[in-house]
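Posted in: Protein Modeling Q&A

I'm a second-year student putting together a small comparison for a lab meeting, and my supervisor asked me to include a predicted structure for Cytochrome P450. I've never done this before, so apologies if this is the wrong subforum. The sequence is pasted below exactly as I got it from our records. If anyone can share the structure token output, I'd also love a short note on what stands out.
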Amino acid sequence: MATAAVETTTRFSKPAVLDPLDVSRPEIYRDDTWHEPFRRLRAEAPVYRCEHSEFGPYWSVSTYKGIVEVESLPDLYSSEAGGITIADFLPETDVKMPMFIAMDRPKHTGQRRTVAPAFTPSEMARMTDDIRRRTSEVLDALPWNEEFDWVDTVSIELTTQMLAILFDFPWEDRRKLTFWSDWAGDIELVKNEELRLQRLQHMYECGAYFKNLWDQKIGKEPTPDLISMMIHSDAMAEMDHMEFIGNLILLIVGGNDTTRNSMSALAYGLDLFPDERAKLEADPGLIHNAVQEIVRWQTPLAHMRRTATADTELMGQQIREGDKLAMWYISANRDESVFGEDADRIVVDRPNARRNLAFGHGIHRCVGARLAELQIAVLLEEMARRRMRVNVVGEPTRVSACFVHGYRKLPVTIGKY
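Accepted answer (user: helix_wrangler)
Welcome! Here is the predicted structure, written out as tokens:
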């Protein structure tokens, strides 16, 4: 398929004629109308060149097969050369904050290996009782048969508590983590110079706060939190300040957005498909599979970006060195060739739900995936123990962006089944 013709645009300006297959447009996520353009891309142009967008030219990789191929060749498709989002880094105005997800081997390997022990099966077992206790406290405090915002009251609170524990962060200040995560993960802010500078200021504040926590742990015995793990590692102990901030942002956004938006999706999605909710209510043994299915259906991070390091061919398309590729996980997780014609539905007993790409694939697969799955599973288990059903009473307010795919607000009531 040829790319749609539009007038040449400058960076971050609206194209005079919109390409209907430009899936970087924030409004299609805000309005939940992204399904059709991705359906067309998968069917007609699984590797598609969008010449003009607010983020400049890029290739859309929209099928499961195409994304697995790109993710499996990290030396050919670099995370470091252009970063991990469709927004470009501008040396003349942007401040570089390196993070290990946006690094190539071998540095990526060493830094990932440093934080990985926080997410091992033994650590998950150690943390389960505390996650269950905190989840129970949040659920037991909810008002029955009264309207409230599920996103803020449940999803944000539970994920922010978990982040505070992972970082050994002062409990009374834990909502700062949510605030920093929202600013760091909002890709749309780069289009507005004033907001971009505000974000930079908030990231500096985040770095200064964590630098104080870091300094307090220097020379102390190792503890099972991420800051201590960094201090006591060869790969991360000598990071400069910008790299320190970059890795903090990665861990905060990764730990916040994936879990938070999946927790919101379980409330919204199960209400949307009441037959599947009934199936899950009748058989709590389906919970662990349902977690995989909810994460697939939601896909909390819509895309990751790679940059070609050499001329190559991808599914019949000629990719040039330096080209930007957006891997649309949100589309791959609806790929009919993998998940069937009912891929747009939640099916709690879907046999291959675990094949989802919501956490990525290959060497950059989300290091905290197990923890996210555990928190979502415990939430569903504790809801089942209370026979708690969430009823959505109004349309959600969605994130207007092509990176974080999530919810700002979700009005609900709860009752018993």
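A couple of things worth pointing out for your meeting: The two ends are 50 Å apart (CA to CA). The first helix runs from residue 27 to 30.
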